[in-house]
């Protein structure tokens, strides 16, 4: 890179590459995956569990390096209050204050996204769309939303998913037009609104040491009140909560939500059909008026007068605007989610059912 | 479970005091339970400390039980501090502490200041000074808890010793530096919802890269079943060896095994068949309906693009 053309040392080029990768301001490296720190996982779970079942949100902090979004810390947002006006101002001020305080203790001061808790997977709402759109727009496609489902994580596998909007959806949202033609133009359907990114969880060395010492259940401590030695179970002893058999509450709730979504979907369909019918009606009216105009013109030509223009007929009869298809997109996406959840839940449940069958033999 | 070597200390509480004939029962001695989030947070702060700092401190937030005997530490935040060369002086950014507490209170109003933490296992004069400051923050008559975490790993078993203390005055005059730290038993407690998260993090500890990815529900079930299978194999191994006579039999273990196995409920065969089949039918019907809905949506999706 020097003027004389001598090759730069390999070490220099290596550091150059790393720096450019880390400071990827133009968004050239697309995000491939999300790497979350162990601390962030626990903090998200704690916050979401405390306010279950109302939805809560928070901010993610970290850095994106080489196509991997590293999330190293997070902080929760205060809950929604009654008056909206004050809430907006307070929210912004809270964010600024929190970021400033965290910078003093060397926490990464870089926002990389936000997280939200959800109840049984019902997270595809307008609010989510707006917020994620703002984030993605501001941070140049480098922000994700992490969705945590509290009800699914209890008694079973941890449910944590990272989403961001697809390019097609961003384009459509930018124009804010969700008519049928714009959907076809962007090839946008309910299944490609979100792109899900794979998540990996990484721990620091000290944390790994901590986890090893938590696992070590050779230590026996006498309880203070009674003097007989009780063997205390370590926090990391095998977790058999996944083997619980009860299925009714979860499936019931899921089916309820599914029914509601389907009802909403039919409502949307009705609105669309109504619009189509009104468009057809307008069209026939326009045709009739045009015919009359033509006849008038013929008679006027016959009597030697100027023919009347046909344009103002079009101006008088305006076609009603097409309703936004965004709602139906969201609803179908939500229905798809519920169905997928039911499938995912019933898989292991079938397995457990057959195990208990075998035990009886 | 406490994360430190077994101590031979017994924690006793004072006998109930009688004040004007009214007995104040003190059935439990003072205990502290810590949420894993706090421990992880402390380690993260320690990793991000400034170049010249050997120790870091911060505030502990939590809830206290009504009679004050049990304290649950739920959250924490770091506080910048400065240890100058002069051993007698230490500067703690109090304004920062107050600001952060206000911000945290906005999110969760229930958590109050219950104490402070420091990394590094030794306790010296500046610990006493800071303990005094925090005792003023914590509403009297309750004591401020001091939690230390041995990040230098200097103790014998090389553990990250987590110890909690309460301060007590010592000496003739009541100066802030004169403080005796009384150890208090501490425990790691967490909620069910956090269990799955903790398990996921624990599975990362055995990997070289210290990272793990999220697994699907089926894989999680498989893991648990494999674990149960291994346990059953060990037990059957043991029982076989005892029957052969190679291991002396132990009555306690035998009785314990018998109790465990008899927990499996013995249901009449026909009844069980009926329950099993109806359960299975419900499940399969739900799966069928869900799949049908999905197919419908997929068709609609294709058609929409064609219009």
TrEMBL record, chain A:
A GO BP entry: formation of cytoplasmic translation initiation complex
Domain of life (superkingdom): Eukaryota
Entry keyword annotation includes DNA damage: no
Annotated compartments: Cytoplasm
One GO cellular component term: eukaryotic 43S preinitiation complex
Signal sequence region: none
One GO MF term attached to the UniProt entry: translation initiation factor activity
Described function: Component of the eukaryotic translation initiation factor 3 (eIF-3) complex, which is involved in protein synthesis of a specialized repertoire of mRNAs and, together with other initiation factors, stimulates binding of mRNA and methionyl-tRNAi to the 40S ribosome. The eIF-3 complex specifically targets and initiates translation of a subset of mRNAs involved in cell proliferation.
Protein name: Eukaryotic translation initiation factor 3 subunit H
Automatic annotation (TrEMBL), chain B:
Compartments it resides in: Cytoplasm
Gene3D superfamilies found in the cross-reference section: Cytidine Deaminase, domain 2
Primary localisation category: cytoplasm
InterPro entries listed in its UniProt record: eIF3f, EIF3F/CSN6-like_C, JAMM/MPN+_dom, MPN
Domain spans labelled MPN: 32-171
Presence of keyword Cytoplasm: yes
Entry GO CC: eukaryotic 43S preinitiation complex; eukaryotic 48S preinitiation complex; eukaryotic translation initiation factor 3 complex, eIF3m
Record-level GO BP terms: formation of cytoplasmic translation initiation complex
Pfam families: JAB, MitMem_reg
UniProt entry keywords in alphabetical sequence: Cytoplasm, Initiation factor, Protein biosynthesis
Keyword Cytoplasm set for record: yes
CDD domains in the cross-refs: MPN_eIF3f
Domain of life: Eukaryota
GO MF, any single term: metallopeptidase activity
Quaternary organization: Component of the eukaryotic translation initiation factor 3 (eIF-3) complex.
Family of this protein: Belongs to the eIF-3 subunit F family.
HAMAP family: eIF3f
Function field: Component of the eukaryotic translation initiation factor 3 (eIF-3) complex, which is involved in protein synthesis of a specialized repertoire of mRNAs and, together with other initiation factors, stimulates binding of mRNA and methionyl-tRNAi to the 40S ribosome. The eIF-3 complex specifically targets and initiates translation of a subset of mRNAs involved in cell proliferation.
Designated name of the protein: Eukaryotic translation initiation factor 3 subunit F
């Amino acid at each position: 890179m020097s003027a004389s053309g001598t090759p730069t040392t390999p070490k220099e080029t290596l550091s150059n590459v790393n720096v450019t990768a880390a400071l990827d301001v133009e968004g050239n490296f697309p995000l491939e995956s999300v790497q979350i720190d162990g601390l962030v996982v626990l903090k998200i779970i704690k916050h979401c569990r405390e306010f279950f079942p109302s939805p809560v949100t928070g901010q993610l902090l970290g850095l994106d390096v080489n196509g991997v979004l590293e999330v190293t810390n997070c902080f929760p947002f205060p809950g929604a209050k009654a008056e909206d006006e004050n809430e907006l101002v307070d929210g912004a001020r809270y964010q600024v204050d929190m970021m400033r305080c965290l910078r003093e203790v060397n926490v990464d001061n870089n926002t990389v996204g936000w997280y939200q808790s959800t109840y049984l997977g019902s997270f595809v709402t307008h609010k989510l769309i707006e917020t994620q759109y703002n984030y993605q727009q501001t941070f140049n496609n480098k922000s994700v939303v992490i969705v945590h489902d509290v009800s699914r994580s209890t008694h079973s596998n941890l449910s944590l998913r990272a989403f961001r909007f697809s390019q097609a959806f961003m384009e459509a949202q930018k124009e804010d037009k969700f008519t049928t033609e714009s959907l076809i133009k962007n090839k946008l359907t309910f299944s490609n609104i979100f792109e899900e990114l794979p998540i990996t969880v990484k721990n620091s060395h000290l944390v790994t040491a901590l986890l090893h010492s938590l696992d070590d259940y050779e230590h026996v401590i006498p309880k203070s009140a009674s003097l007989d030695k009780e063997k205390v179970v370590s926090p990391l002893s095998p977790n058999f909560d996944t083997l619980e058999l009860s299925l009714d509450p979860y499936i019931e709730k899921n089916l309820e939500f599914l029914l509601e979504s389907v009802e909403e979907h039919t409502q949307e369909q009705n609105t669309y059909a109504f619009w189509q019918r009104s468009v057809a009606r307008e069209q026939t009216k326009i045709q009739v008026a045009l015919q009359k105009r033509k006849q008038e013109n013929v008679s006027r030509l016959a009597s030697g007068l100027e023919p009347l223009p046909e344009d103002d007929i079009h101006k008088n009869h305006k076609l009603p605007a097409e309703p936004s298809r965004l709602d139906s997109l969201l609803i179908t996406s939500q229905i798809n989610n519920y169905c997928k959840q039911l499938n995912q839940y019933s898989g292991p449940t079938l397995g457990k059912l057959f195990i208990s069958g075998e035990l009886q033999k | 479970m406490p994360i430190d070597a077994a101590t031979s200390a017994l924690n006793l509480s004072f006998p109930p005091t009688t004040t004007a004939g009214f007995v104040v029962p003190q059935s439990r001695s003072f205990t502290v339970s810590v949420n894993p989030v706090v421990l992880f947070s402390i380690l993260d702060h320690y990793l991000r400390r400034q170049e010249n700092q050997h120790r870091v401190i911060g505030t502990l937030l939590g809830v206290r039980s009504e009679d004050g005997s049990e304290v649950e530490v739920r959250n924490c935040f770091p506080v910048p501090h400065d240890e100058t060369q002069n051993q007698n002086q230490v500067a703690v950014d109090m304004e920062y502490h107050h600001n952060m507490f206000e911000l945290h209170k906005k999110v969760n109003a229930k958590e109050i200041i219950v104490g402070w933490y420091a990394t590094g296992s030794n306790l010296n004069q500046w610990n006493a000074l800071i303990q005094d400051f925090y005792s003023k923050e914590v509403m009297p008559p309750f004591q401020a808890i001091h939690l230390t975490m041995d990040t230098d790993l200097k103790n014998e078993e090389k553990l990250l010793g987590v110890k909690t203390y309460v301060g007590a005055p010592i000496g003739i005059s009541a100066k802030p530096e004169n403080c005796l730290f009384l150890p208090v038993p501490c425990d790691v407690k967490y909620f069910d919802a956090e269990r799955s998260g903790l398990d996921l993090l624990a599975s990362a500890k055995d990997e070289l890269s210290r990272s793990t990815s999220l697994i699907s529900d089926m894989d999680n079930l498989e893991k648990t079943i494999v674990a149960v299978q291994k346990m059953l194999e060990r037990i059957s191994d043991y029982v076989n060896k005892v029957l052969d006579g190679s291991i002396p039999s132990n009555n306690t273990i035998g009785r314990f095994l018998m109790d465990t196995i008899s927990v499996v409920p013995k249901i009449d065969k026909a009844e069980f068949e009926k329950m099993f089949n109806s359960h299975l039918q419900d499940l399969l019907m739900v799966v069928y309906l869900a799949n049908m809905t999905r197919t419908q949506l997929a068709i609609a999706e294709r058609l929409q693009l064609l219009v």
